[in-house]
Amino acid sequence: MEAMLFWWIFFTLGWTLIDGSEMEQDFMWHLRKIPRVVDERTFHLTSPTFEADAKMALNGVCGIECQKELPSPSLSDLEDSLSYETVFENGTRTLTRVKVQGWVPEPTQNLTNQGVPIRRKRQVYGTDSRFSILDKRFLTNFPFNTAVKLSTGCSGVLISPNHVLTAAHCVHDGKDYIKGTKKLRVGLLKMRNKGGGKKRRRGSRRSRREVSGDDGGKESKENLKESAKAGRRRNKSARGQRTAAGEPSFQWTRVKHTHIPKGWVRGESGDAALDYDYALLELKRSHKKKYMELGISPTIKKLPSGMIHFSGFDHDRADQLVYRFCSVSDESSDLLYQYCDAESGSTGSGVYLRLKEPGKKSWKRKIIAVYSGHQWVDVHGVEKDYNVAVRITPLKYAQICLWMHGDDANCTYG
């Protein structure tokens, strides 16, 4: 039954087979020249307090209709929003001002409204269409192996051997860095080797024999009692963290740097902007897992069957990787509005597509957005609730690429 379910996911729904000629013509990655985002000057800032609560902190989010009425941002506004903070492992931080070169304002996105009925505020809409990925053959293989868990409770996605893309609000609430981010860690899924528990038990028996060696009588018994107490304390602290052989667990890695756009870090000057709810984490140790590359987010018309996909660690399914897919309902220049079932914990997940590579027979999955969470949106004067993802636009692609490589030499096309 389980095997049949996975075949159904992969070949019937998740990757939606469409007529080949239609795919060749319409559903393809198109390389495009990327504007340049160049570091101009870096300033040292005071160390943050790391005292914010881990929750979404957005008020008065500009919705679809609001975005239609707003004028296009000026070049100086864009440069201000794309300037960024970097917080380091030791708790210090900097602000880097950037210059944008080669930017041409894009035409206003034709926003859609497909008449989706108004729904009550919740993350799971009607029948829960999420799938828990339990089979280790899928958990440890691409694309599911790219999903990671943050120590703050969010999700993220591997986009290089050293970098994780996630939502900005997973580490910063718009005013300050949230509690725990000074020692932020990223958990990579792994499978525990069989027999691990037996080795630990043999080690415990050896410890007992060493303690009860030739100390003699009373002292030996006291040592044994102390050893037993220490063992119980270790067992108690490890309880709930043990994973049976062959089951998934996490390999935790510290974060070296965290980059957040100033469009999100508004401080006292205003509310955080949902358009900039993304952050890049640089890992202290590189990994050897297959990662997913970034791509420019296409319009709804260029999505195969209008579908998007993402996997994360929803809080209501403890430590299970949860996969979902759904069609996009509405879009703006910076956001995708959809009804993918998702509970808290999945925020920060990488939203991806599978499209044809130009001039090749192969297909490729790329990250085209970051799942941000639930928002109320004003559509034609009516409040609707959506699950929202932040699109990877050409400018955001250039910025994230700059964060990854330290210069824009590898960020010409995307």
TrEMBL record:
Residues 191-248 are annotated as: Disordered. Residues 140-202 form the Peptidase S1 domain. It holds the Pfam family Trypsin. Residues 209-229 have a biased composition (Basic and acidic residues). Keywords: Disulfide bond, Glycoprotein, Hydrolase, Protease, Secreted, Serine protease homolog, Signal. It comes from the Eukaryota. Coiled coil: none annotated. Residues 191-208, 230-239 have a biased composition (Basic residues). InterPro entries: Glutamyl_endopeptidase, Peptidase_S1_PA, Peptidase_S1_PA_chymotrypsin, Trypsin_dom, TRYPSIN_HIS. It is found in: Secreted. One of its GO terms (cellular component) is extracellular region. One of its GO terms (molecular function) is serine-type endopeptidase activity. The keyword Hydrolase applies. Residues 1-20 form the signal peptide. GO terms for biological process: proteolysis. Belongs to the peptidase S1 family. This is Inactive serine protease 35. It comes from Sus scrofa.
